[in-house]
């Protein structure tokens, strides 16, 4: 076979090869776009069902933080006796019970938000323990008074977590 015969053979094959490559490229691009479109539709459908559940979780966590806020828990949980230690333990037990009741919500909120919530809970418990450990605390009423006075000087630990929840919910919607 000489060079002319090879060229005569390639001339009809070359356009078919070019058409084949272009067709493959368009088919590949179309397939990718369809796959991305399907993923987007599935994601959008999941968002429709997941967003309300997430918002409910954020609502529950905000309610939890409101319920364990030192100012509110002191008025909600009345002392069973006059002993400050027993009252402090009652308050801490109430906070822990509220927390355990809402543990499952952590799967719907971000890790950073959950860390804020846990830190807030622990800071509130720490505030109660610190107040109960003071020498001037003789009874439950004095404990309540000291905790409330400490809230006048600084922000409640739960307020920062509630602010973070509000910020995160705004980013979701």
What is the fold's blueprint, element by element?
Elements: H1 3-68, H2 70-76, H3 84-101, H4 111-133, H5 140-153, H6 157-172
Helix pairs in contact: 1-6, 3-4, 3-5, 4-6
Structure description:
The protein is 83% helix and 0% strand. It is mostly helical and 173 residues long. The protein has one domain (51-172). The N and C termini lie far apart (72 Å). The relative contact order is 0.12. The model has no long low-confidence stretch (mean pLDDT 89).
**How much strand?**
under 5%
C-alpha Rg (nearest Å):
32 Å
Order of helices and strands: HHHHHH
Note poorly predicted spans.
none
Helix content: over 70%
- Strands, total number: 0
What's the mean pLDDT score? 89
Give the end-to-end Cα distance, rounded to a whole number of Å.
72 Å
**Outline:** rod-shaped
Number of domains: 1
- Determine the structural class based on helices, strands and strand pairing: mainly alpha
How many H/I helical runs? 6
Major sheet summary line: none
In short:
The protein is mainly α and 173 residues long. Helices cover 83% and strands 0% of the residues.
């Amino acid at each position: 076979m000489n060079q002319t015969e090879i060229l005569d053979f390639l001339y009809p094959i070359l356009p078919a090869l070019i058409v084949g490559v272009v067709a493959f490229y368009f088919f590949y691009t179309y397939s990718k776009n369809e796959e991305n479109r399907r993923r987007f539709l599935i994601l959008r459908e999941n968002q429709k069902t997941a967003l309300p559940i997430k918002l409910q979780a954020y609502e529950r966590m905000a309610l939890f933080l409101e319920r364990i806020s030192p100012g509110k828990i002191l008025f909600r949980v009345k002392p069973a006796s006059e002993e400050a230690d027993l009252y402090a333990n009652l308050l801490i037990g109430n906070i822990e019970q509220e927390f355990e009741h809402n543990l499952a919500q952590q799967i719907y909120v971000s890790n950073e938000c959950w860390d804020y919530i846990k830190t807030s809970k622990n800071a509130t418990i720490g505030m109660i323990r610190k107040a109960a450990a003071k020498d001037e605390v003789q009874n439950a009423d004095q404990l309540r008074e000291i905790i409330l006075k400490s809230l006048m000087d600084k922000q409640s630990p739960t307020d920062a977590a509630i602010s973070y929840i509000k910020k995160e919910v705004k980013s979701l919607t």
